[in-house]
Specification:
Length: about 120
């Protein structure tokens, strides 16, 4: 799978599937500095993943500060030929000052055994 540089950062296409509904976006950042995978709240709502009273709420910290997210388990997260079923994601506002639908964090990258080749800008 090819990486695309956007804003000087590596982006990929990801497909999220939940309860028979699939959504694909080209605006997922590959971030080895992020412990978890997060998607934008707007995308989550399109998949029927709105907040519910019993959802786990977490406060996450990053370069841009802190934000609150809630956690959900989706049926599948796929990048190219690599997919993980029953995968826990975090959902938040993701208001970072540029267009982004999600962050593929180290949790997914390790579990899917992704190799990032920066010379060829590909994920293997």
């Amino acid at each position: 799978m090819n990486l695309r540089l956007k804003y000087g950062l590596p982006f990929v296409t990801a497909t999220l599937t939940h309860k028979g509904k699939a959504l694909t976006s080209n605006d997922f950042l590959i971030d080895t500095g992020s412990a978890s995978t997060i998607i934008a709240a707007e995308l989550a709502l399109d998949l029927g993943l709105g907040p519910e009273p019993l959802d786990v709420i977490r406060q996450i910290r990053g370069v841009g500060g802190t934000e609150f997210v809630y956690e959900k388990c989706i049926d599948r997260l796929q990048l190219g030929t690599r997919s993980i079923s029953n995968f826990k994601i975090q959902i938040g506002d993701m208001d970072y000052g540029f267009e982004i639908d999600g962050i593929i964090g180290l949790d997914y990258l390790l579990k899917a055994k992704v190799i990032i080749d920066l010379e060829t800008l590909t994920l293997v």
